[in-house]
Amino acid sequence: MAQKILIIGAGIIGSILAWRLANAGCKVTLIDPSDTGGTASAVSLGWTNATYENPRFYYDLRLFSMTRWDAIKAAHPDLPYTRNGTLYTSFYGIPLDTVFAEHSTWGYPFQWADTAELQSLEPNLAALPERGLLCDIEGHVAPHHAAKFFRTQAIKTGAEFIKPHATSLIRKGDAIIGANTDQGPLTADITLLAAGTETATLAATANLDVPLTAPAGLLIHTKPAPRLITRTILTEDLHMAQWPDGSISAGGDFGGGAVNDDPIKGSEILFERLKNTLKSEHPLEFSHHTLGLRPTPKDGFPIIGSPTKGLYLTVMHSGATLAPAVGELVTTEITTGQRDPLLSAFHPDRFAPH
Ligand SMILES: Cc1cc2nc3c(=O)[nH]c(=O)nc-3n(C[C@H](O)[C@H](O)[C@H](O)COP(=O)(O)OP(=O)(O)OC[C@H]3O[C@@H](n4cnc5c(N)ncnc54)[C@H](O)[C@@H]3O)c2cc1C
Question: Which residues are within 8 A (CB) of 16 and not within 5 positions of it... i.e. 6 or more apart?
């Protein structure tokens, strides 16, 4: 009989899992009172990369996921993902030579470009460095649009998407057998928590500790502008990308930091930086800011795995990059019992007291 899976949370992670698991023959119920992507997917920069916060095991998972974004895009051209590449003129205080050396040893396709080449590639950058790093396999995705796309595929494949809010997990002996919701209990063979920053609160209702932090992430968004940049661009004090509608999103710090403390003041600072960074014939117009929360496990790395019978956890930062890998590898583990070595470092047991 088909495994019955209850997925709590329809951000990019829960939505791709609903699709993949339904596709693998599971009977999937995805629940979320919102369909806009919670505190993260709706307000994310969506840069897909394998370069940030990088021991080898984390790099490997992200690199694998980037290849899977390409594969899904090849099969579904309307997926809101583009492999537009990245230009690094700086990398958060780490010398570019160091970033290049480490990742090139691992085979990451970085290329140096001099000022003249950068000028031809990104002519609207106001100040060009003597050299920058290019990476053509990195990309950009709108996580809440991708989540919607995955939900649509999931529903077409037989998954059910309903709107209850989960209030607690239901425990029977050692096992989790479902969740109570504001519309009554839902039972399942496996309850999959993909609730982003809310994962810890729900797990705590079954006396399970999921050590999570939720650093704020401020982004500013301009009104649509003529195309000014093609790649995701990292400068000394800004990371930015331009969406298909022409609007530009920009942030200043991946790990929280000063611009997040006062979002109004922070937005003004970021917008000034953006105007100084880009040359534009028409003045850029500020649209709004967003203040997201990054679902970040305490050691910085994804939590992916089953801490107890009947429950599976998927919570992470860099979920925009990792969604395809999580969708594919978690589905394999749940449906076959085989855990891919790429997931070895990410089991929740690493936090268990020894
Ligand atoms: C400012 C910012 C910039 C970022 N930039 C990048 C980037 O460039 N690259 C990258 O890879 N990652 C980036 N991230 C991280 C990435 O966006 C997240 O890792 C990813 O979106 C997490 O997705 P999720 O589905 O796990 O969580 P969420 O998007 O938070 O979704 C969780 C869902 O669970 C639902 N939910 C919560 N509680 C309950 C409940 N009790 N019952 C039912 N449903 C519930 C919520 O409504 C929500 O829809 C960024 C994040 C932020 C905030």
Answer: 146, 147, 150, 323, 324, 326, 327
